[in-house]
Amino acid sequence: LLFAEMKLPGEAWLEFKIDENNILHQTATFRPRGLRGRLYWYSIVPFHYFIFGGMISNIAKTDHN
Predict the structure, then answer these.
(1) Which residues of 31-62 are buried (b: 16+ CB within 10 A; e: fewer)?
(2) Phi-psi region of 35 (alpha: psi -120 to 50; beta: other; left: phi over 0)
(3) How far is 41 from 36, CA to CA, in rounded Å?
(4) DSSP 13-28
(5) Three-state DSSP class for 12?
(6) Average pLDDT for 3-9
(7) Are 29 and 8 in contact (CB under 8 A)?
(8) How far, in Å, CA of 49 to CA of 34, rounded?
(9) How far apart are CA 27 and CA 52, in angstroms?
(10) What are the CA-CA distances from residue 47 to residues 20, 27, 44, 52, 54 (Å)?
(11) pTM for this model (two decimals)
């Protein structure tokens, strides 16, 4: 579980889990504070796929041998 330490209009964190089939799952959560928080979240939704998709792909490809 990784908590965001940046100044945001709410609380944000990333959660990573590996299931029984060794599949890596990533969940981004944002708990908005007021209208400003909701506007912030929905304004960056289009970028989530690129940011978080690229992040989990790079983590999954990393070889630690």
Answers:
(1) ebeeeebeebbeeeeeeeeeeeeeeeeeeeee
(2) alpha
(3) 9
(4) EEEEEE-TT--EEEEE
(5) strand
(6) 90
(7) no
(8) 24
(9) 9
(10) 29, 15, 6, 8, 11
(11) 0.69
